[in-house]
Amino acid sequence: MWHTNDGMGWWMVFMGIFWILFWASLIYLFVIAIVRPAQGRRPDDGADALEIARRRLARGEISTEQFQELRRHLDGDIRGPQPP
Q: How many domains does the chain have?
């Protein structure tokens, strides 16, 4: 009458899937909480401005003239480029 001999039923399959998704989500959030702050750091943190300018020159982001102007500015000579 109450069908007690049918076993646990299909709901056990869905509960197993639910728990797998629950733990996977929890692990994902934990990993994101650790990885995301590490991605916020820039590789140039702690480097002085002249070293950053050298790296940019080496990567081709700025020209030699721009590097010279930055170097003069950083060395305290902010008058700019001198006429020839």
A: 1
Is residue 16 in a domain? no
Please give the distance of CA 15 from its chain centroid, rounded to a whole number. Answer: 35
DSSP 81: P
Flag whether 64 is in a domain: yes
Q: With pLDDT > 90 as the criterion, what percentage of the chain qualifies?
A: 33
How do residues 40-51 score in pLDDT, each as one tens digit?
666 655 568 888
Where residue 52 falls among pLDDT bands split at 50, 70, 90? confident
Q: Please state, as a whole number, how many other Cβ atoms lie within 10 Å of the Cβ of residue 53.
A: 21
Do the domain assignments include residue 76? yes
Q: In angstroms, rounded to a whole number, what is the distance separating the alpha carbons of residues 16 and 19?
A: 5
| Cα distances (Å, whole numbers) of residue 15 to 11, 24, 49, 56 | 6, 14, 57, 55
What are the backbone angles phi and psi of residue 16, rounded to the nearest 5°? -65, -45
